[in-house]
Structures are given as structure tokens and as C-alpha cells.
Design a protein that fits this description.
Chain A is α+β, with helices and mostly antiparallel strands and 197 residues long. Chain A contains four helices and eleven strands; from the N terminus they run αββββββαββαβββα. The chains are: A alpha+beta (197), B alpha+beta (981). Chain A: It comes from Celeribacter neptunius.
């Protein structure tokens, strides 16, 4: 849970994507759903002007992953979003100017603040991959067997566009548009609740 | 009770149910049909057209007769096949399609009128008088049409959907399906085994055949246990695979809770989209009957179904114990039924076999070379007429089984226009090789219906399917089984003068087919439509081939020459609820909420759907009884003081890169690359065909960093178009695009006191007119260090700004502005006031940029730069478009209290109001509280030269016209002084 008061850089009080002052979390049997309000996001794109053959920079010590892959190290993570383009994640950096931090790591790249462009829901299973994959089967047209840890994709979920990151066998992040947070939470929670029945 | 011994029902679990209000008892494992039969109930419904008494004919999803309304209240569902309805305690069902009690249906009078209801009846009868059609015929027909009734209440159940992926989908869990599943499962392949039945085994559960010299049930149980132990196999019972779609996708409906009295927390049904690398079609076969005179009485059923009821459900087809049962067959299969019934202790009169050389398989009477030529019994069979060598005699029977051969279930194999092929030996259509790719028919569905051959064929199909995807599967040890004798004659119907039913559900007889032939409706497609054969809820599963055979006989052609029936999805009826996928009401589709949504909600705002967005439309205050009061107040507050409005919904595209300016020059019609850092410019985008596409502002925040603003409606489209140009047209440009619409909450602060209000929240930033003039932009901080973006732009025509902060701070910023501006009279305003303000100012919005308009029409033709090329620029100068003289004007009704409706057409005063004299149209209209008059915007021929003219605005839809004066589109501050102050 984020303590906004101590992290505040302004006297304005932020709200989470779901409209609360604290991140929402709920359990459904073996599955738990948590709004990750503290996740800082910024996109990083290579510039064309970069020398040909130049390798993608490392940011925060992270090697930038290949097509359809996600990596993580400590509080930071990166996932591929397009050609020469990645989303960089930073746990606990939802309130600060994470894009500025990233820009200083990769001054020759285009960096765009994305933290509040998205809402991140972290789904965890207390009973291995089974419940998570059963949930996926109700939500997205992906073969869970071909979507193991470290995989990322962008896909449709209940008519919404989302990034899915398989953080581990038993953990999945669903990152959707912030303004659709309520509808996305509804879709995820209804599907999880139905698995309980 | 006519319950037999044995069966796969659980006699320790009795279940009570009602049919037409009368109580009965069945057992777990029963279907409604088997339980009714076991209770001696033969009469289950009425036919569609003639209202003939009908009983159950089949034992599976092909059932045409025993259709009931299941459940009560909101869950009442018509046309439920009693053969597929699993019995549960408290089940309530009613027969359908009758007026009055089932056994005394008043509409049975239709049967007496049958000579008038021949094939093509509707087409021939309701031709005249023409005026009668709409008022009399159609309502009457509609009232009589349809089977069953709807509750007209909202469906209380939940429906779900999902996606599955596998190496091998096996459709059908009979002998072939189980052998395939075991073969593939042991090979480690990801397998889905689906069957519409609630138990595994298919026909194996309905036959007396042994496997490994033991009851088949023992083998089924062992296979089930093994498959359940394999993590790579998913067994889906109560799941109907109803269609084959492109790219190996199969549609399936799982009836999750249909076997329960109420679903409780469960969903009722789930729609699955199964993506399978390969599939085995092991859907079995459907028995066909032999039409003969009066063959539709309750008690007449398929011989295979009769055998199934006896073996699996221990239900006898007769009303009273001891009533005789006869079998009418054209092959060996009918004899199996006789043998099984005798083994169950039933009273078998004998077997009537159309083949002269037929031999009995056991100890029963054989009528070789004989046919059934008539039946008696008003509400149920009491006797049949057997004719042999021209001699007829009547025999008392309580039931008659009819065995006319088996049709492989080729349906799914013909979904990609795979045309089945005729097999002369089987006397049936079998799947062809040009069916859906990757779908391999096996077992009875492929014409291999003997138990031993079905088992072997299922295994073969699995090995073949998996070998195509590089999975090696080995042969498995199959149980010892035999193939029953299956000789049959090509005997399709018993000729005669009386009506002999081919399609039970839609009341199509051999006579109807003969009439269709006589009227030249010979092609099978015409036959179907002329007679309605196969067009009922059962889709003619028990009748299509028989009808084709009758037509072939009449035309003197072979069956394949006569035609081939192919099938479309769905295999059986699929409810719209499950296709809809579940959510209803507010959750029917996703909603986008602005960052200040919850704040606006608390304030009592009325919301309006704008695409997916929910936007605050206006903020009513206590005492305001009409929306106009709120909107007028909000508009005047902006013009006189300061108003604030959430404008987050406008699209925002972050454009970076060394070539960002060049890129923007190409997508905008006007010059954008020359924009100075810290400045904003209004821009127009054209479509490739030269018409207006979108408008908005473009801000240059830093040297190589721009922010493009789009209209709310076009946010996604413009971003997509920009990405297309970036990736496909000018990939050489160094430019990076990111949509940031959601990332930033943007609030418009508008009105003469807006600067004063903003000065109270910005951190050490000079927002004086000199320090931050009109069309300026800046990245700055507000409220003690929060990063923000400030734009000095105005949609309202007043001194105005838009301030953007990370979305999570949007609500707090709104609250802070309300708090800081209390003494300034700060007023929140919604989309209605926003619209009024921009119409008063003559600013274009979606109504003016409707895809048919040009920059010239907006009076902005000069914005399409001649100094550079851009999307649509050349096409905007083409003939036809460049000469368009319609121009945006303001319109003020002569009577200011009369509203000019948007959409009204404009005409020169005194001219006829016709297409040829049309002078333009009204795009937007509102009441201007500032002018205390209705006003409007519109496009008018040569409008820029007609200021002061009085013209007619016609609204032919409502039959209204009014006179209006053509004025400048800028009703407020045409010089633009206010927004520059």
C-alpha cells in the first residue's frame, strides 16, 4: 500500500485509478487482485538518429528485452512494446517524476511519462499456475502454455486493450488504460469470482 | 410405470418433477424424455402446423417432437428438447403449441384443414387483397407462428465466455472419441474431449454390446478415470461444439448449470472459443426413419432411440406394461432393437422388415418383405397395419420402432462448404476430404459405425492428426469388440395415398414433396424453402436425407444427383444470451471515466455518454428544475467570471524525435514545423481525399517534443492514422509517437477571471499577459511542486487556459480550483455549456467536421499551406471540392425564442424546398443565454457573401420551417479581443 502523505511532492492528494485513496485489493479463493498504484511507468524509444547497429542502452542496470519478453531486476522492470520501444516499470515510483529519472538514464532516447496512462492490476495465485491459467482462459484468447514467465503481450480483454505480463508461473500483471480501470476491475473480479463458484 | 430393469440410472436417487402440472418421479441419470416414457407418458407435444399429437422420436439432440417449455418465471425457456433436459428434483415442464389442454388442443382443427395447408401455402394464399397483408394476414400468421412462448422477463442468469487452446479437439466421446482421446492423451498431446451428453460413452451407453466381454460401462469408466488422471486432457461434458470457424477455431457451448434447478453462484452456460491445431470429428450418426401413412403418432419412434431408452434409461416406450412393441426396419439394425427389448422382458410383436429375404436374429416373429401401411390411436399408437404381398392386417401395439438406417453426423465437416459425398454401400452421405482443414472425421461420423471399427478408427484419426503436428502417438490396446450386422436395403418410404410425415416438426409430408416436385421446386434448396422442410428448430436432422431420397425417387435420379444437403452453424440452437457473453446494463460495454468523474458524481452532475467516455453534461443546483437553467447559468458564469471543465477526453499524442516538426508538417494541413518552443498553434488535419479529418491544437513544449491535441471522438483514429504514416509511409523520419490521453488530467479554466484563479495555484511562474500570452504553453509546477503543463488556449472565446497534471492529481486539482476560486464565483461546467460557448464563438466541433466538409467551408481554406505538401492537400484542390461555395455562417432566428433544429436544411426565401434548391444545412444549434436567443451554425451556399439575408430553415421531419438571419459565425467577440487580454 502506498503512503501518499509521506511520498507527496505536492499538497494535492492523489487518487488511485479506481478512485480510492488507497489501492484496492481483493481475494477470490486462491486468486488475489491488487491495484498497483505505486507502479511508475515511462516509455523508452530509440531515436533513428542513433548510430546504426547501436545496441539498446541499459537502464537501471536492466538489459532491454526482445520481442514479446519482459525482464525485471529489483524494483525495475522492462517489457517490449514495439520495434525499438519498451515500457520501463519502477515499483514504488508512482508519485515521482519517473520519466525524468529514466531520461537521465537514457538521454539519447525519447522518453514519455506513462505512469498515469495506465492502471496496473497484479494477480497472484496462492495455488500455483492452475487458477491463474483458468482465469486467463476466461479473459484472453491466449494459450497459457505458450505464455510462460517472462512473456508479455498486448491483447484484447472485454473490448479493452491491455498489456499482460506473466511475472511468474503464479503471477500475472494486467496493465490497461487508466480511464477504463473500473471496467477492467469489473471484468477481472467477475471472472475471478466465478471461478470460486 | 413402464420402467425396465438395469440401465445407467441411479435408483437410489429419486427425483420429483411435473409435466403439465402433474407430478411424476424419475431418477438421477434420467432425461425428461426418459422419465416421461418410464411414467407411461407418450404424448409430449403438438406439431407446428397441424397441431398433431406427438411423442418423443429420438433420444438425443436431433429430437423434432418432444419440445417443452422448461422452468417457470423468468427462467422459462421454450423449445427445450426433452431428450436433452437432464432431470433434476423439482423440474417443471409444459408442452407447447396447443390451445387448451394438450390432449384436447383446439387448434387441432388445423389438421382437418390440412388440404389447404399444402407446400407453398403461404406464398399462394396471402397474395390478395394486397391491403390485407399488413393488417390481417401478417398479424394472424405471426400470432400462430413459433413454438412455445417467452416469459418476456429479463434473463436472471449469468453467462460466461472463454478461450481454450489445444493440440487436438475431439468432438464426441463415443467409441471413436474415447479411443482418440486415450491415444492422444497417452501421447502427451494437449487434448480437449467435448460431448453434448452429460456422460461419456455416446452410443456405447445405449447399446448392449460388450467390450472385453464385459459391459461397455466398465470400459468407459476405466477410460474416464485414466483421462481424468492425465493433466494434458480436459474432459468437457454437456458441451456442444456447434461450429467450425476460420483458423482452427471451434465454437462450443458448455451447459454449466442447466442440469441444476437454479445456477446459484454459477454461470448458466459458457461460450468457449477453442483454438485447436487439429480436431477429430467423432460426432456419431443420427438415425433416420421410414415415412409411411400416419407415422407421426405418439409411440412411433426411432428404433435406435427405443433401444437407447431401454438399455441406458430402463424406460419402455409403451404406455402400459405388457403392451406389444413392433419394429419396422429396412435393415439388420432394427433387429438389434428387437433383441435388446426381448432381453429386457418387453412384449415384442415382431419385426416388419421391408427386405423379402430378411432373416430373424433371434426368437421373435419376422414379417419379411412387409411394410407398415397405417396406424391408429388418437393420442397414442394403439395398432398398426402390416401389409405383405398385398395383404394387410391390423395388429395391436403400444409402440413402433422404425429403423431406416443411420446418417453420419457430417454437419461440422460441411461448415466450410465441405460438400458431403454419397456412399452407395452405406446409403448415406459421409464427410468429404474438402471439409474444414485439420478436421478429421472418425467412427460413425465417417461411416464407420460398428463398435470395433469405430474404436479402431478413432485411434487411427488421433494418430493421423497428431502426426501432422509432429506429435508421435502410438497405437493403444483397444478393447475386444464386434461390429453388428448392418446390411440394409435402399428402402426410403412406403408409398400410399395418406399423409406420411418426413419432417415431423414442420409437418412436411411425402405429399408435400411430391407437390413441390410437381410445381418444379426440384432443387434441394427450393424444396427446402417451398415446403419449410428442415427449417424448424431441429434443422431437419431426422428428415433431410429422407426428403432427398423421396425427391430422387420422384425425379428418377440418384440421391447425389438430386442434391446434397450441407449445414451451417450452429449444430444445435445457441441462446443469444450466451453468444452475448454475459454483461448487461452498465457493464455491457466498458466505460471510460475522467479523472474528476467521482468528484462530479458527488456534485450531482448529469452524465452523457460520449463514445466510451462518461462526461459531466451539466451540474444542476438546488432549485433548478430544467437542464437549461443549469446550462445557462454555467455559460454566463464563464463569460462573466470563471468556469472549470474537465477536458481530459481530448486526445493527446506525444510526438518526439529529430524529425517531429517535419512529421507534423506532413500530417497537418498548415505549417507546424515553424512553431516556436513554448507556443501552441491551431491545426487542421485532412483526410487523404482532401476533406477535413480533425482539428485541434499542437503545442511545442521543447525543441523536439510536441503534444498534439485531437477531438475526443477522433483521438484513437488520429493516433492510428499518425502511426500508420509513421510506420508505413515515412519510416525514414525520426519520430516517436505515444498516446498520453489517459496520462494527463486536463482542466479548462475559462473566463475573464481565469488568470486570477490560476495565479493562486502556479508555482513561481509569470502568467501575466506579457509573460504568458495567448497561444503560449509551458511545462511548470503547481500546488507546491507538482509537474504540470499549461496551455493558453480558448474554446469558449474568453481568456482561458488548460492545465494538465498527472491523472491521479486531476480530482485534487479540480477541488483545489473550486476552493481557491470560491470568492471569484468559480463554476464547474459540463459538455452542454462547453457546446454553447463554442457555438457562440463560432468554433467548429464534430458536427462541423462530419467527414463531408472542407477547410474552405470552415472559412479556413488558406490554412492548407501551399508551401509544403501534407496529407490530403493535393486532393483538397481537386475539381468539385475546391469549387464548393458553402461557407460556415451563423444563423439567428427572426423570432429568437424559436429553436432552429440542427439538421434543418437551408433554402433561399420563397423558393421551393427541394433537393435541387437546397442551399445548405444547420450543423449546430443552441440557446445562447448571452444573446438571449436561439442561435445556430450552418453551411450555406456562398454564405460569406450573404450576411444579413433572411433565409428559410426547414425541418421536414417535423414539418416545421422558420426564418433566420444570416450572421457572422462569431456571435461573441468577433474581434477576439477577450481571449488575448
Amino acid at each position: 500500500m502506498i503512503d501518499y502523505a509521506t511520498n507527496a511532492v505536492t499538497d494535492l492528494t492523489p487518487i488511485t485509478a479506481l478512485g480510492g485513496t488507497v489501492a484496492r485489493s481483493e481475494s477470490f479463493g486462491a486468486l488475489s487482485l491488487s491495484e498497483n498504484a505505486g507502479l511508475g511507468l515511462a516509455s523508452l524509444s530509440l531515436r533513428k538518429s542513433a548510430e546504426k547497429g547501436q545496441e539498446a542502452p541499459q537502464v537501471f542496470g536492466l538489459p532491454l528485452p526482445g520481442v514479446g519478453k519482459a525482464t525485471a531486476m529489483g524494483a525495475y522492470g522492462a517489457f517490449w512494446t514495439g520495434r525499438d520501444q519498451w515500457m520501463i516499470e519502477a515499483q514504488g515510483k508512482g508519485e515521482v517524476d519517473f520519466a525524468a529519472m529514466l531520461k537521465s538514464e537514457a538521454p539519447d532516447c525519447s522518453v514519455t511519462e506513462q505512469t498515469d496512462g495506465f492502471v496496473a492490476f497484479e494477480i497472484a495465485s496462492a495455488n500455483g499456475a492452475g487458477p491463474l491459467e483458468a482465469l486467463m482462459a476466461k479473459l484472453v484468447n491466449l494459450d497459457p502454455k505458450a505464455f510462460g514467465p517472462g512473456q508479455v503481450t498486448r491483447t484484447g480483454l472485454e473490448h479493452m486493450t491491455v498489456f499482460l505480463i506473466r511475472r511468474a508461473e503464479d503471477r500475472l500483471a494486467v496493465i490497461g488504460m487508466r480511464t477504463l480501470a473500473g471496467s477492467l476491475w469489473h471484468a477481472l473480479s467477475v471472472a475471478a469470482r466465478r471461478l470460486e463458484a | 410405470m413402464t420402467r425396465l430393469s438395469g440401465g445407467l440410472i441411479d435408483r437410489s436417487k429419486p427425483l420429483n418433477f411435473t409435466f403439465n402440472g402433474k407430478s411424476y418421479r424419475g431418477f438421477e441419470g434420467d432425461t425428461l424424455a426418459s422419465a416421461l416414457l418410464a411414467n407411461g407418458v407418450q404424448l409430449m407435444g403438438r406439431s407446428f402446423k397441424y397441431h398433431r399429437p406427438r411423442g418423443v422420436v429420438a433420444a438425443g439432440s436431433e429430437e423434432p417432437n418432444a419440445m417443452v417449455e422448461l422452468r417457470t418465471g423468468a427462467r422459462q425457456e421454450p423449445n427445450t428438447r426433452a431428450t436433452m433436459a437432464e432431470l433434476y428434483d423439482g423440474l417443471s415442464a409444459r408442452s407447447q403449441n396447443h390451445m387448451g389442454p394438450l390432449n384436447r388442443d383446439l387448434l387441432a382443427v388445423n389438421d382437418l384443414m390440412s388440404p389447404f395447408f399444402a407446400a407453398g401455402f403461404y406464398y399462394k394464399t396471402f397474395m390478395w387483397p394486397k391491403a390485407f397483408w399488413e393488417k390481417l394476414y401478417e398479424p394472424a400468421i405471426r400470432k400462430a407462428a413459433g413454438l412455445g412462448s417467452l416469459s418476456m422477463l429479463p434473463d436472471p442468469d449469468q453467462y460466461d465466455k472463454g478461450f481454450l487452446h489445444c493440440d487436438l479437439l475431439i468432438v464426441g466421446a463415443g467409441a471413436a472419441g474415447l479411443a482418440a482421446a486415450l491415444t492422444a492423451g497417452r501421447a502427451g498431446a494437449e487434448v480437449i474431449l467435448a460431448d453434448e451428453d452429460f456422460s461419456l460413452g455416446g452410443r456405447l451407453t445405449m447399446e448392449s454390446d460388450t467390450l472385453d466381454e464385459a459391459e461397455a460401462a466398465a470400459w468407459i469408466a476405466s477410460v474416464k478415470a485414466e483421462l481424468e488422471s492425465l493433466p494434458n486432457v480436459r474432459i468437457m461434458t454437456r458441451t456442444t461444439v456447434f461450429g467450425v470457424y476460420d483458423h482452427g477455431i471451434f465454437g462450443a457451448v458448455e451447459r454449466v448449470a442447466d442440469h441444476l434447478k437454479e445456477p446459484g453462484a454459477k454461470v448458466r452456460q459458457t461460450l468457449w472459443r477453442i483454438t485447436a491445431k487439429r480436431a477429430v470429428l467423432a460426432a456419431g450418426a443420427t438415425e433416420r426413419h421410414i415415412p409411411f401413412a400416419d407415422n407421426d403418432r405418439p409411440g412411433v419412434m426411432m428404433a435406435g432411440a427405443m433401444r437407447a431408452y431401454a438399455n441406458r434409461w430402463a424406460a419402455s416406450p409403451v404406455k402400459r406394461d405388457g403392451d406389444a412393441i413392433a419394429i419396422f426396419t429396412n435393415g439388420d439394425d432394427g433387429h438389434r432393437t428387437a433383441m435388446d427389448l426381448i432381453a429386457k422382458g418387453a412384449n415384442v410383436l415382431g419385426v416388419i422388415d421391408a427386405r423379402a429375404g430378411a432373416e430373424a436374429l433371434g426368437d421373435y416373429k419376422l414379417f419379411a418383405g412387409a411394410t407398415v401401411t397405417g396406424t391408429k390411436g388418437r393420442l397414442g399408437l394403439t395398432s398398426i397395419e402390416i401389409t405383405r404381398n398385398g395383404t394387410s392386417e391390423w395388429h395391436n401395439v403400444g409402440a413402433l420402432g422404425v429403423a431406416g438406417g443411420w446418417n453420419p453426423n457430417v454437419h461440422l465437416a460441411s461448415h466450410h462448404r465441405g460438400r458431403p459425398v454419397w456412399d452407395d454401400r452405406l446409403l448415406a452421405f459421409v464427410p468429404s476430404a474438402d471439409g474444414p482443414k485439420g478436421l478429421i472425421p472418425a467412427g460413425a461420423a465417417a461411416g464407420k459405425g460398428g463398435t470395433a471399427e469405430a474404436l479402431a478408427d478413432g485411434m487411427r484419426a488421433a494418430i493421423e492428426a497428431l502426426s501432422e503436428i509432429d506429435v508421435t502417438a502410438s497405437e493403444i490396446a483397444l478393447p475386444k469388440a464386434e461390429n453388428a450386422a448392418s446390411d440394409q436395403a435402399a428402402f426410403w418410404h412406403v408409398p400410399g395415398d395418406k399423409r406420411a410425415w418426413v419432417d415431423f416438426q414442420n409437418d412436411v409430408t411425402v405429399k408435400d414433396i411430391a407437390l413441390a416436385h410437381k410445381e418444379n421446386m426440384k432443387p434441394v434448396e427450393h424444396l427446402k424453402r417451398w415446403t419449410t422442410l428442415g427449417m424448424a428448430t431441429d434443422q431437419g436432422k431426422t428428415s433431410n436425407i429422407s426428403a432427398l431420397a423421396v425427391m430422387a425417387e420422384l425425379t428418377g435420379k440418384s440421391i447425389p444427383e438430386t442434391g446434397t444437403t450441407i449445414f451451417r452453424p450452429p449444430y444445435t440452437g445457441v441462446s443469444l444470451s450466451v453468444l452475448g457473453g454475459g454483461d448487461t446494463g452498465n457493464n455491457f460495454r466498458p466505460s471510460r471515466l475522467t479523472p474528476t468523474h467521482h468528484w462530479a458524481e458527488k456534485l450531482g452532475a448529469e452524465f452523457v455518454e460520449v463514445g466510451q467516455w462518461m462526461r459531466a453534461q451539466y451540474f444542476p443546483r438546488q432549485g433548478e428544475t430544467h437542464w437549461r437553467q443549469a446550462v445557462d447559468r454555467e455559460v454566463l458564469a464563464v463569460r462573466a467570471g470563471v468556469g472549470i471543465c474537465d477536458v481530459t477526453t481530448l486526445g493527446k499524442v506525444d510526438v518526439q524525435g529529430a524529425d517531429a516538426g517535419e512529421f507534423l508538417n506532413r500530417v497537418y494541413a498548415n505549417m507546424m514545423g515553424t512553431l516556436a518552443v513554448g507556443k501552441v498553434r491551431y491545426g487542421l488535419m485532412l483526410r487523404e481525399d482532401g476533406h477535413l479529418y480533425d482539428d485541434g491544437t499542437c503545442a511545442r513544449l521543447f525543441e523536439d517534443h510536441y503534444v498534439v491535441t485531437t477531438t475526443t471522438a477522433n483521438a484513437g483514429l488520429v493516433y492510428r492514422q499518425m502511426e500508420f504514416f509513421h510506420q508505413c509511409v515515412w519510416p525514414e523520419l525520426d519520430v516517436q509517437l505515444i498516446s498520453t490521453t489517459d496520462a494527463w488530467a486536463q482542466i479548462a479554466v475559462a473566463g475573464p477571471k481565469s488568470r486570477e484563479l490560476l495565479s493562486r495555484i502556479v508555482d513561481e511562474f509569470d502568467i501575466s499577459n506579457e509573460g504568458f500570452p495567448f497561444m503560449g504553453c509551458a511545462a511548470l509546477t503547481i500546488c507546491g511542486g507538482l509537474r504540470a503543463r499549461l496551455f493558453r488556449i480558448s474554446f469558449s472565446g474568453e481568456l482561458a487556459y488548460e492545465v494538465a497534471v498527472p491523472a491521479r492529481y486531476g480530482q485534487a486539482l479540480m477541488e483545489r480550483l473550486m476552493q481557491e476560486g470560491a470568492d471569484l464565483g468559480v463554476t464547474p461546467y459540463g459538455t452542454e455549456a462547453l457546446g454553447v460557448l463554442r457555438i457562440e464563438k463560432g468554433h467548429a466541433a464534430g458536427a462541423e467536421l462530419n467527414g463531408q466538409t472542407t477547410a474552405q467551408m470552415l472559412g479556413l481554406g488558406k490554412m492548407v499551406s501551399m508551401k509544403k505538401d501534407s496529407v490530403g492537400a493535393v486532393m483538397s484542390r481537386r475539381g468539385g471540392l475546391a469549387e464548393d461555395k458553402r461557407r460556415l455562417v451563423g444563423l439567428k432566428p427572426i423570432d429568437g425564442q424559436q429553436q432552429i433544429m440542427a439538421g434543418s436544411h437551408l433554402f433561399t426565401r420563397g423558393t421551393a424546398q427541394e433537393t435541387g434548391t437546397d442551399q445548405g444545412w444547420v450543423t449546430s444549434s443552441c440557446y445562447s443565454p448571452h444573446l438571449k436567443s436561439y442561435i445556430a451554425l450552418g453551411y450555406l451556399e456562398e454564405g460569406d457573401t450573404r450576411i444579413g439575408e433572411q433565409i428559410t430553415a426547414a425541418n421536414p421531419l417535423e414539418g416545421k420551417t422558420l426564418m433566420a438571419e444570416v450572421v457572422s459565425a462569431h456571435f461573441v467577440d468577433p474581434e477576439g479581443g477577450r481571449l488575448r487580454d
